[in-house]
C-alpha cells in the first residue's frame, strides 16, 4: 500500500513537471511521457550538435570522447565566476599577455611595488610601470585577492594624478564596484581645479554608478548646475527614501533649488564638495588657510582666485610665509609668485655681499629670500650657479621639492654656459638634462653599427628582409676593418635583430661578441619561471630615478637582453630608439 502511494506521488510529480515544461516551451504537440529513451536520445543528439558546432575549427581526427571533454571545459569556463579583467590596455599593445601575473607570488609583488612607490621614478620608469600596471591581465593565483590586486592599479592612478588617464580608466571599467574611490578622487580633483564641466560630463559617460551618498550628492549638484532642477529633485527624493541623512546638504540643496534665500549654513571642511557648497551658499564667504589646511582646499582656493595676493601678505607673519611656501610646493601658488614674495624682504648691503655666510644666520624662509636676491644682483656665472645650488638645497632640506623646479631651470638658462668653470658645470648640466631631448633628430653614421640606419628597423620603417641585407653589408665592411671594436651598444642592436629572427651568416660569428649581458640571477630565475610582470617590475626598480639615457651601457644591455628573452619587442624598441642613436 505504501509502495503504491509512493508510485502515485512520483507519477503526479512527473505529470506536473511535464505540464510546466510544456507551457514554458509553448508547444502544442503531445508528449509521450513514457518514452524516456526517446527523450534521452533527443537530448544527446542536441548535445552532440552543440559539440560539433563548438568544435567546427578543430581537427577532424579528434575523437568523440576528446570532443566531449573540450565541450565540458568550455561550458565550465563560460559559466564560471571568473573575475572581470581590470585595466586599460590590451596585452598585445605591448607584447604582454593575460597570464603575465599568474605565476608570481602576491606577497612578493606587493613588497616590490611598495619599494617602487618610495622611489621618485623618472619619466622613463613611469612609462614602463604604467604599461605593466594598467594592462588587462588575470591576478596572481597566490597570496593576493582580486580586490587587493585591483587596488594596486587604483592607488597608482591616484598617485600618478593624470586625470585624463583616470577618466579613461573609469569609463572602460565602469561596471566595477572598486571604482568608488577612484571616482571620488576624480570628482574632487576636478572640483579643486574649478573644472565643473568635467565633473558633470563624467556622469553621462558612466553606465553604472557605485552606491555612494557622496557621489550621489555630486550628481544632484551637477543637475542643478546644468539647470535640470526637476531631475535633481527626483534624484534627491530617491536618496532620501533610501535613508539618506545630511542636514548640511539638505540646507544647501534647498538654497540652490531656490526654495529658501537663507541657508543658515556654517562653513564645512568635512569634504571638498561641502566646502564648495559653503562657498556657493554663504553670503559673506571668508576663509584664511593655514599650514594645516588640506592640500586640496588650497588648490580649490587658488583655482577660484580666493587666496591672499602676494603683495597683501604680512612679512612679519612667519606662519603665513611658511604656509605660502608649502602651498607653492603643492601647486596652489606659482613658483614665480613665491620668488616675487622673496623680493619683498629687506636686506642690507652687508648681507648681500657676505651672502654665503649671512644666509646661515637667518630663518629658513628668509635665507631663501636672501639667496634669491643675491642671485639677482650677481653678474658672475660661477657665483650665480653656487647661489642657485644652495637655494635648491635649502628648498629640499625643508622637503619643498617642487617649490623651485620650473623657475630653477628658467633661471639657470639665463647663465652664460661658456663662462661657467668645470667646477660648477656638473650642477648646471644636471638641471639642463631635465629639459629632455625628445624633439632632437637622429644623426646617422654608417661607419658605426649602432649609429647606422639599421636603427630604423626598431621604428618599424624597414622590413626584416631588407634589414638582413643591410646588416650583411655592414658586417662585411666591419670584418675588413681590423681596427673596428664592437661596443656594447653594437651588441645590443645585433642581439635584438637576431632575437627577432634576423639571420647572421656564420662567417661573421667570429667577430661578434654576444651573450655578455650579465642578467642578474634573480631575473634569470624569473625568466625561467615565466614571471613576466614581476620581471618588468624589477626593471622599473632598477631604472628608478634615472633616465634611460643616463644608465650605463652594461645595465642597458641586460635590460634589453631580458626583454629579448621575454619577446617583449615593443617596449624594447622604445628603449633602443631612446638610448642608442645619437641625437642632435
Would you give an account of this structure?
It is flat and about 90 Å long. It is built from 28 helices and 2 strands. 25% of the residues are buried. With 584 residues, it is mostly helical. Residues 1-80 have low confidence and may be disordered. Strands 1-2 form a two-stranded antiparallel sheet.
Outline of the structure:
The protein is mostly helical. It contains 28 helices and two strands.
Counted by DSSP, the helix tally is 28
Order of helix and strand elements from N to C terminus: HHHHHHHHHHHHHHHHHHHHHHEHHHHHHE
Give the termini distance in whole angstroms: 103 Å
Our estimate of the beta-strand percent is under 5%
In helices, the fraction of residues equals 55-70%
Flag low-confidence runs: 1-80
Class computed from helices, strands and strand pairing:
mainly alpha
Largest sheet, in brief, is: 2 strands, antiparallel
Gyration radius, in Å? 34 Å
- Kindly state the mean pLDDT as a whole number? 82
Major β-sheet strand ordering: 1-2
Shape call:
flat
Quantity of strands, as a count: 2
Q: Topology of this protein?
A:
Elements: H1 2-25, H2 36-54, H3 64-79, H4 106-117, H5 123-133, H6 146-160, H7 163-172, H8 179-192, H9 196-205, H10 213-225, H11 229-241, H12 247-256, H13 272-281, H14 295-303, H15 318-329, H16 335-342, H17 349-353, H18 355-358, H19 364-377, H20 381-397, H21 406-412, H22 422-432, E1 442-443, H23 464-480, H24 488-499, H25 521-529, H26 532-543, H27 553-566, H28 569-579, E2 582-583
Antiparallel strand pairs: 1-2
Helix pairs in contact: 2-3, 4-26, 5-26, 7-8, 8-14, 9-10, 10-11, 12-13, 19-20, 20-22, 24-27, 27-28
Amino acid at each position: 500500500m505504501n509502495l503504491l502511494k509512493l508510485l502515485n506521488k512520483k507519477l503526479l510529480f512527473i505529470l506536473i513537471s511535464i505540464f510546466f515544461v510544456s507551457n514554458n516551451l509553448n508547444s502544442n504537440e503531445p508528449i509521450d511521457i513514457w518514452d524516456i529513451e526517446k527523450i534521452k536520445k533527443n537530448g544527446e543528439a542536441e548535445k552532440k550538435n552543440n559539440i560539433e558546432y563548438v568544435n567546427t575549427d578543430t581537427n577532424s581526427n579528434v575523437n568523440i570522447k576528446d570532443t566531449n571533454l573540450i565541450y565540458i571545459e568550455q561550458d565550465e569556463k563560460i559559466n564560471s565566476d571568473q573575475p572581470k579583467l581590470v585595466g586599460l590596455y590590451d596585452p598585445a599593445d605591448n607584447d604582454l599577455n593575460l597570464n603575465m601575473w599568474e605565476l608570481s607570488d602576491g606577497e612578493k609583488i606587493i613588497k616590490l611595488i611598495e619599494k617602487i612607490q618610495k622611489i621618485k621614478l623618472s619619466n622613463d620608469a613611469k612609462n614602463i610601470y604604467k604599461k605593466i600596471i594598467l594592462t588587462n591581465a588575470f591576478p596572481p593565483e597566490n597570496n593576493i585577492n582580486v580586490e587587493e590586486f585591483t587596488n594596486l592599479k587604483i592607488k597608482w592612478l591616484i598617485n600618478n594624478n593624470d586625470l585624463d588617464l583616470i577618466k579613461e580608466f573609469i569609463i572602460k571599467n565602469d561596471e566595477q564596484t572598486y571604482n568608488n574611490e577612484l571616482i571620488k578622487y576624480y570628482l574632487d580633483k576636478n572640483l579643486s581645479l574649478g573644472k565643473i564641466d568635467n565633473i558633470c560630463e563624467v556622469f553621462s559617460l558612466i553606465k553604472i554608478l557605485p552606491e555612494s551618498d557622496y557621489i550621489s550628492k555630486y550628481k544632484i549638484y551637477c543637475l542643478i548646475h546644468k539647470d535640470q532642477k526637476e531631475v535633481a529633485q527626483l534624484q534627491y527624493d530617491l536618496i532620501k527614501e533610501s535613508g539618506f541623512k545630511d542636514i548640511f546638504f539638505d540646507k544647501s540643496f534647498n538654497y540652490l533649488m531656490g526654495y529658501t534665500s537663507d541657508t543658515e549654513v556654517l562653513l564645512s571642511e568635512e569634504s571638498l564638495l561641502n566646502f564648495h557648497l559653503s562657498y556657493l551658499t554663504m553670503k559673506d564667504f571668508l576663509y584664511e588657510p593655514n599650514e594645516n589646511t588640506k592640500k586640496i582646499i588650497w588648490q580649490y582656493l587658488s583655482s577660484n582666485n580666493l587666496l591672499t595676493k602676494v603683495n597683501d601678505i604680512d612679512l612679519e607673519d612667519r606662519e603665513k610665509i611658511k604656509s605660502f611656501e608649502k602651498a607653492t610646493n603643492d601647486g596652489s601658488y606659482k613658483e614665480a609668485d613665491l620668488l616675487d614674495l622673496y623680493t619683498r624682504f629687506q636686506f642690507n648691503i652687508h648681507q648681500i655681499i657676505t651672502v654665503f655666510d649671512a644666509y646661515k644666520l637667518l630663518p629658513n624662509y628668509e635665507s631663501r629670500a636672501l639667496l634669491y636676491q643675491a642671485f639677482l644682483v650677481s653678474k658672475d656665472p660661477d657665483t650665480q650657479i653656487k647661489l642657485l645650488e644652495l637655494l635648491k638645497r635649502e628648498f629640499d632640506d625643508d622637503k619643498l621639492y617642487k617649490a623651485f623646479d620650473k623657475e630653477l631651470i628658467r633661471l639657470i638658462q639665463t647663465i652664460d654656459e661658456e663662462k661657467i668653470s668645470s667646477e660648477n658645470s656638473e650642477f648646471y648640466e644636471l638641471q639642463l638634462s631635465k629639459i629632455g631631448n625628445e624633439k632632437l633628430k637622429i644623426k646617422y653614421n654608417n661607419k658605426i653599427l649602432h649609429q647606422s640606419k639599421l636603427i630604423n628597423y626598431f621604428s618599424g620603417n624597414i622590413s626584416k628582409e631588407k634589414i638582413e641585407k643591410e646588416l650583411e653589408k655592414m658586417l662585411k665592411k666591419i670584418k675588413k676593418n681590423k681596427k673596428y671594436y664592437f661596443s656594447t651598444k653594437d651588441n645590443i642592436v645585433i642581439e635584438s635583430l637576431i632575437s627577432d629572427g634576423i639571420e647572421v651568416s656564420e662567417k661573421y660569428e667570429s667577430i661578434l661578441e654576444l651573450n655578455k649581458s650579465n642578467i642578474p640571477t634573480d631575473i634569470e630565475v624569473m625568466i625561467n619561471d615565466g614571471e613576466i610582470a614581476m620581471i618588468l617590475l624589477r626593471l622599473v626598480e632598477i631604472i628608478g630615478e634615472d633616465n634611460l639615457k643616463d644608465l650605463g651601457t652594461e645595465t642597458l644591455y641586460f635590460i634589453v637582453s631580458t626583454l629579448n628573452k621575454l619577446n617583449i619587442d615593443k617596449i624594447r624598441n622604445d628603449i633602443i630608439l631612446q638610448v642608442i642613436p645619437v641625437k642632435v
